[in-house]
């Protein structure tokens, strides 16, 4: 249990906090403590303040197990793509170690955590909270899907209509309201990057209005400031 | 069959076969994972990153041990295959999902009215 470390619980972004939860690694119980399902990472701390954290990108899957034949208590099962030595001390005991190279396993290291809450009815909420947090951490290695916005909502409408009205503003707003602060910052950053790389003929729906399109043609620098209602209130809109 | 509320996710889905997986929500099928384990269950959600949520799962781990899981969420990165049920018409499913995306995108019609940011902005 030498990978256990003392650290303060997460201060923000906690989606679910579950006290009286036992943590089990593989076949070994780690004691009872509090599970923090936070947007940044998954943390567990026992009563003495010792615990560990798991980064969502290292989590392969999680599940609710009520199969008492497989394991005698209902629990949240979490499979992690990393190795946790229960005996020997490691350089990075903070459990962020992605030692995927050398492992005595077949292909890749796997660690199985089980979180057994004393309140079984909380399992669904714990599961859902984890799903939401996982969705905040998409795989950065994903080959194709990330940057291929060509032909999507970003330029189709504006392209067809020349300048101006961008119907997907509606959905952009709708989508924005569903993003967390982190997701929104990511979206804005991506849009900024894409906007800087498109030609002056293009306009990215949801990012620019016809006003900045004129700016483009003037050869002015594109402003990558986040889109804010009222920002373009002085724009001349053709109805 | 719900369409994501995120413009980014809709665009990603539209440009990849994830859109097919989003069209088979509700079907019971098998997902093969990267580590050779398999999960047989009902697909309740697939997002643009191919994260898959399954319900009522029979999970066979890579050692062959079988267990039941009520709910399973597997990250897209760890999905190797998703078996498409035979009765699914793949082309029709993809077309239907694309239609749904377009319905959301062109809500209110292309030429109708001003479509800028609404003044009341909710965050």
TrEMBL record, chain A:
A Gene Ontology biological process term: cell volume homeostasis
Listed InterPro entries: ICln, ICln/Lot5/Saf5, PH-like_dom_sf
PANTHER family: CHLORIDE CONDUCTANCE REGULATORY PROTEIN ICLN, METHYLOSOME SUBUNIT PICLN
Protein purpose: Involved in both the assembly of spliceosomal snRNPs and the methylation of Sm proteins. Chaperone that regulates the assembly of spliceosomal U1, U2, U4 and U5 small nuclear ribonucleoproteins (snRNPs), the building blocks of the spliceosome, and thereby plays an important role in the splicing of cellular pre-mRNAs. Most spliceosomal snRNPs contain a common set of Sm proteins SNRPB, SNRPD1, SNRPD2, SNRPD3, SNRPE, SNRPF and SNRPG that assemble in a heptameric protein ring on the Sm site of the small nuclear RNA to form the core snRNP (Sm core).
Keywords: Cytoplasm, Cytoskeleton, mRNA processing, mRNA splicing, Nucleus
Domain of life: Eukaryota
Name of the featured protein: Methylosome subunit pICln
GO CC list: cytoskeleton; cytosol; methylosome; pICln-Sm protein complex; plasma membrane; spliceosomal complex
Residue span of region Disordered: 86-109
Family to which the UniProt record says this protein belongs: Belongs to the pICln (TC 1.A.47) family.
Location in or out of the cell: Cytoplasm, Cytoskeleton; Cytoplasm, Cytosol; Nucleus
Organism: Platysternon megacephalum (big-headed turtle)
Composition-biased stretches (Acidic residues): 96-109
TrEMBL record, chain B:
InterPro entries, sorted: LSM_dom_sf (IPR010920), Sm (IPR047575), Sm_dom_euk/arc (IPR001163), U7_snRNA_Sm-like (IPR052840)
Domain named Sm: residues: 16-88
Coiled-coil portions: none
SMART domains referenced in this protein's UniProt entry, alphabetically: Sm
Signal peptide: none
Keyword set, alphabetical order: Nucleotidyltransferase, Transferase
GO biological process: mRNA 3'-end processing by stem-loop binding and cleavage
GO CC annotations on file: cytoplasmic U snRNP body; nuclear body
Name the record gives this protein: Adenylyltransferase and sulfurtransferase uba4
A GO term for molecular function: histone pre-mRNA DCP binding
């Amino acid at each position: 249990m030498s990978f256990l470390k003392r650290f303060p619980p997460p201060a923000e972004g906690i989606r679910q906090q579950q006290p009286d939860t036992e943590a089990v690694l593989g076949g070994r119980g780690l004691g009872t403590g509090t599970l923090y399902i936070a947007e940044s990472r998954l943390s567990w701390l026992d009563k003495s303040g010792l615990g560990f954290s798991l980064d969502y990108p290292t989590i392969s899957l999680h599940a609710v197990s009520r199969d008492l034949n497989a394991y005698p208590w209902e629990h949240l099962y979490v499979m992690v793509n990393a190795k946790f030595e229960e005996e020997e001390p490691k350089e990075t005991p903070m459990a962020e170690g992605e030692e995927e190279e050398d492992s005595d396993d077949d292909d890749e290291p796997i660690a199985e955590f089980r979180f057994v809450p004393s309140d079984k009815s909380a399992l669904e909420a714990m599961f859902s909270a984890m799903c939401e947090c996982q969705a905040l951490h998409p795989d950065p290695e994903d080959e194709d899907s990330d940057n291929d916005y060509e032909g999507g909502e970003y330029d189709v409408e504006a392209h067809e209509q020349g300048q101006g009205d961008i119907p997907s503003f509606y959905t952009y707003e709708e989508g924005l309201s569903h993003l967390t602060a982190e997701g929104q910052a990511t979206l804005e950053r991506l849009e900024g990057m894409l906007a800087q790389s498109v030609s002056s003929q293009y306009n990215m729906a949801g990012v620019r209005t016809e006003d900045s399109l004129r700016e483009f043609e003037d050869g002015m620098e594109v402003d990558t400031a986040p889109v804010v209602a009222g920002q373009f209130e002085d724009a001349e809109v053709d109805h | 069959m719900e369409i994501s509320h995120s413009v980014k996710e809709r665009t990603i889905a539209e440009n990849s076969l994830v859109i097919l997986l989003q069209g088979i929500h509700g079907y019971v099928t098998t997902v093969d994972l990267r580590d050779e384990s398999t999960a047989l269950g009902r697909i309740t959600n697939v997002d643009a990153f191919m994260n898959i949520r399954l319900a009522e799962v029979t999970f066979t781990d890579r050692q062959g041990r079988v267990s039941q899981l009520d709910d399973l969420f597997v990250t897209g990165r760890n999905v190797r295959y998703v078996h498409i049920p035979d009765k699914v018409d793949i082309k029709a499913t993809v077309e239907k999902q694309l239609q749904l995306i377009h319905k959301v995108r062109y809500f209110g019609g292309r030429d109708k009215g001003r479509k800028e940011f609404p003044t009341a902005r909710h965050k």
